[in-house]
Amino acid sequence: MQRCGLAADWLPAWRRILTPTVSLEGIRHSFGGAPVLDGISFSVHPGEVLGIVGPGGCGKSLLLKIIAGLVRPQEGSVHVLGEDILALESLDMVHVRSKMGMLFQNYALFDFLTVGENAGFPLLQAPENKGKDKKKMVMGRVSELLKKLGLGGTERLYPNELSGGMRKRVGLARATIHEPELILYDDPSAGLDPVTSSKIFGLIDAIHDATASTEIIVSHDVDRMHAVCDRFLLLHKGNIHFEGTLKEAEEHRDDPVVHAFFFREQASSEPTGMASPPPVPQ
Amino acid sequence: MSRGRTSVLSGAAFVGNRSLWLASVVGGMTMTLVHIVRAMIPPRFDWREFMRNMYKVGVKSYLVIIVVACFTGAIMVVQSATYMSKIHANHMIGWGAGLTIFSELGPLMIGLIFSGRVGANNTAELGTMVVTEQVHALRSLAIDPVEYLVVPRFLSMVIMMTVLTVLGDLFAMIGGAITAQVMLGCDWREFLASLLDAQLLGEFVVGLCKACLFGFTIAVVSCYYGLSVRGGARGVGRAVNNAVVASAIGIFAVDYLATLLCVEFGWL
Q1: Count of C-beta atoms within a 10 Å radius of residue A198
Q2: Secondary structure (H, E, C), chain A
């Protein structure tokens, strides 16, 4: 039976919007018997920007690696872009990953390739872009993107010839050049000065505005995440301690963990004599 | 009684532990080989990465191979000269040097040098890529690390080990001829004639087959240790060390089996 035109056009589109881009259910993972993630469940909807915060070693980066299919959780289910990635064969996983981009904490740039080749890697490796003319076209696109990211003229340099901030931006270019539906950022401001951190978050915001991709950002830099993230997830002791918008976090201001992560700056900027922010409970 | 029982138990634990370790290493290497073969059927490796590795493995290694080969040839002549001159058989020096170098010493020496230079470098490079999450980055970009990184390395090592052995054999003979001329006064033309008269094509081909097998062994061992690195810079150092030792053992074991097989079938 054939659907009428309007329904045929709109139904798949609505289904896509209603299906979460990322959905995790009951994720448990431990290292050497010590649980790091203890029953984590959440979902991220298309076009949404989720910020994951929490103390160091609480499993934020691990969570991103689980979503990217780089680490297999010991328990739970992971659905990414409509696919149950734990049940996928490696060839099908390639299909899911081609719609994904990831910025690594330590850049993870390929040191044997130039900046241009690094940035254009996802496109240069695509079978449809093989051949001299196509490669030329891709490199043109790479140059354009690098210029936008303030890295014009660095195409022929190698990653070890760049500063930390520049490498981060190359990583950003590599994660986004193929316009993925889902972008994962693992601590994009790690090891960067405040000015460069602001620039990186500005670029992330601009990329989201331009592509409307779904994004998950793991960072300690809550102040800069405010401007970019729609919703936050606070991990603490292997569990989700808080999930919601910044406005909703206001309602949990009395909670010492929420306070320590979301309102510490504001509290410390209040006049002296006010109560100092509580430390993060261990 | 109790002490005796404890020492027996700890001995059993040691044997059990070592057996498990050996099984995991052999299993890991077998799985690496299975992944490599699976990634090669149908062949879909990165041509540019393959050429880059061919250059790195072959072109950057030929000088050290030439030097080692010249010395090997020279040593063979010096060693045999003492006996050859005693029995007035200087005209057979070329044959003696060719026989030992083509079938045994050439591939073996070049294999050991190759494992120390190329194999160790390969393990360190792959290990560093694992530690710095470059391998994870490849996977996150929908690229199979075995297909992109390991297959080009494997192929270039097997091909270049064979090519370098041809080069090494040639320079070993040159080194031998020069030494024979200088030390024994044996004319280089006489040296060459005795080499050609001996018709050592079979030995030469057997040596090349061995070289190919050594390249195969070094590639699998070095890639396995490189990809299984854990624990930062220290882990990389440990992996390189293990790879060199395992490659050397592998080369001698493969050489022994290959020689046994050749003798059995009358190829030597």
Answers
A1: 16
A2: CCCCHHHHHHHHHHHHHHCCCEEEEEEEEEECCEEEEEEEEEEECCCCEEEEECCCCCCHHHHHHHHCCCCCCCEEEEEECCEEHHHCCHHHHHHHHCCEEEEECCECCCCCCCHHHHHCHHHHCCHHHCCHHHHHHHHHHHHHHHHHCCCCCCCCCCHHHCCHHHHHHHHHHHHHCCCCCEEEEECCCCCCCHHHHHHHHHHHHHHHHHHCCEEEEECCCHHHHHCCCCEEEEEECCEEEEEECHHHHHHCCCCHHHHHHHCHHHHHHCCECECCCCCCCC
CB contact B141 to A (< 8 Å): yes
Does A30 reside within a domain?
no
Chain A CB within 8 Å of residue B17 CB? no
**Which of B132, B136, B143 faces A125 most closely, judged by CB atoms?**
B143
Taking contacts as CB-CB distances below 8 angstroms, the residues of chain A near B141 are: 97, 101-102, 121-122, 125, 174
Read off the tokens for A95.
Answer: 């299909």
- Report whether B66 contacts B167 (CB < 8 A): yes
Q: Is the model's pLDDT at A85 over the cut of 90?
A: yes
Q: What's the confidence (pLDDT) of residue B28? A: 94
Pairwise CB contact (< 8 Å): B139 & A98:
no
The reported pLDDT for the residue numbered A3 is 46
- Is the pTM value of this prediction over 0.95? no
Q: Is there a domain that residue A129 lies in?
A: yes
| Each residue's pLDDT tens digit, B114-133 | 999 999 999 999 999 999 99
Quick check: is A13 in a domain?
no
Nearest CA in chain A to B133: A108
Query: What type of residue is A127?
Result: P
**Amino acid letter, B192:** L
Q: Read off the amino acid at residue B116.
A: G
Look up residue B231 and give its DSSP letter. Answer: S
In a domain, A120, yes or no: yes
Q: Do B139 and A122 touch (CB under 8 A)?
A: no
The mean pLDDT value for B93-108 works out to 90
Q: What's the ipTM?
A: 0.81
**pLDDT per residue over B122-163, tens digit each?**
999 999 999 999 999 999 998 999 999 999 999 999 999 999
Chain B neighbors of A61, CB-CB under 8 A:
none
Domain extent for A167: 109-179
Domain count, chain A: 1
Task: Give the pLDDT confidence score for residue A16 in this predicted structure.
Answer: 58
User: Out of B132, B144, B148, whose CB is closest to A108?
Assistant: B132
